[in-house]
Amino acid sequence: KEEKEDNNRTGCSELGIMDLKFTSSRKYISISVPSKSQTMSPHIKSVDDVVVLGMNLSKFNKPTQFFICVSGVFMFYLIYGYLQELIFSVEGFKPFGWYLTLVQFGFYSIFGLIELQLIQDKRRRIPGKTYMIIAFLTVGTMGLSNTSLGYLNYPTQVIFKCCKLIPVMIGGVFIQGKRYNIADVSAALCMSLGLIWFTLADSTVAPNFNLTGVVLISLALCADAVIGNVQEKAMKLHNGSNSEMVLYSYSIGFVYILFGLTCTSGLSPAVTFCSKHPVQTYGYAFLFSLTGYFGISFVLALIKIFGALLAVTVTTGRKAMTIVLSFLFFAKPFTFQYVWSGLLVVLGIFLNVYSKNMDKIKLPSLHGLWKKSVEERKTRTLSQTV
């Protein structure tokens, strides 16, 4: 028995030595455990690829990404704004703003489906319930915005959109728990005062001013404030692509609007009118939707890379340029009160941009300016006495 036990011990020791030699030659694989935020979705990657119109922006540095996105937003949305006002300048089209939104959503769905087929990953990453909420908000912001043009001048509608920063900040506080500094609050106050002044000027100058348009565009702004934050949160959490976001949100929104127009009997009169003017309605609507689709792709890229607040700041600057082009290309009453109220809104935009770049842009303080002026006076008096 003792001999057997000795043999077993020696055999085990030999096996242990062989096992140690074998394991020492193995290559170990380290497995990293994702954080809590990452475990919420299996699709989150360490590096997110942002693809816009087939172009991968992740290959560029941050300043180049910002320049490409801003250039795309300005170029496509300026054409978009011109075509939008051109469509509503067609006599008799103003009551059909919701039908234009339906056609626009239909084109957006087709464009999104085509773009989604061109990319490799065609999976839907964002949950369907989230898309139903985003689609409802998208219908609200675009449908109410288009319908408001039947009651307001185009510059007034645009200046309301410029102040989207205010509800976006409120939505950021309640939805994402963000905090804003005094510069952001000052920007919101400047925009609010400029908006009120611009609306008062429009009510005195424009003969067809209607308070219904103000209510519609205000509701559109509230929906727009929520949608920017919801899109940012959903795209970052689930790593959804821009084409996926556009396809599902606008296709579901198309069903919403179609159901609403059918129930309210607003579909057949719009179809009858547009069939009599196909080029001025469907033709312009196609170009209007195409440029809007390209523009929204760059806006979604801005939201995904830089956040909703900076994206709103860029689109606000674009809208200010749209107002200038609107007065140049379309005849409408004008007063210098538009200019002063617009400059107040621009000041609010500058304050917002400054608050996001306070480490790069250093403005002199009032105490520093006062101290500098006192020192200059002392040097002047000394030079005079000498």
UniProtKB/TrEMBL annotation:
Pfam families recorded for this chain? Answer: UAA
Is Transcription given among the entry's keywords?
no
The UniProt keywords, alphabetically, are:
Membrane, Transmembrane, Transmembrane helix, Transport
Highest taxon of source? Eukaryota
Major location, coarse class?
Answer: membrane
Which is one Gene Ontology cellular component term of this protein?
A: endoplasmic reticulum membrane
Q: Where in the cell is it found?
A: Membrane
**Parts of the chain that traverse the membrane:** 66-84, 96-119, 131-152, 158-175, 182-200, 206-227, 247-270, 282-302, 309-331, 337-354
Keyword Transmembrane appears in the UniProt entry: yes
Cite the GO molecular-function annotations of the record: 3'-phosphoadenosine 5'-phosphosulfate transmembrane transporter activity
The way it spans or sits in the membrane comes to: Multi-pass membrane protein
The record's section on InterPro entries has: SCL35B1-4/HUT1
The entry's family comment says:
Belongs to the nucleotide-sugar transporter family. SLC35B subfamily.
- What name does the UniProt record give this protein? Adenosine 3'-phospho 5'-phosphosulfate transporter 2
Task: Give the species this sequence originates from.
Answer: Pluvianellus socialis
Ranked from the top, the taxonomy reads: Eukaryota, Metazoa, Chordata, Craniata, Vertebrata
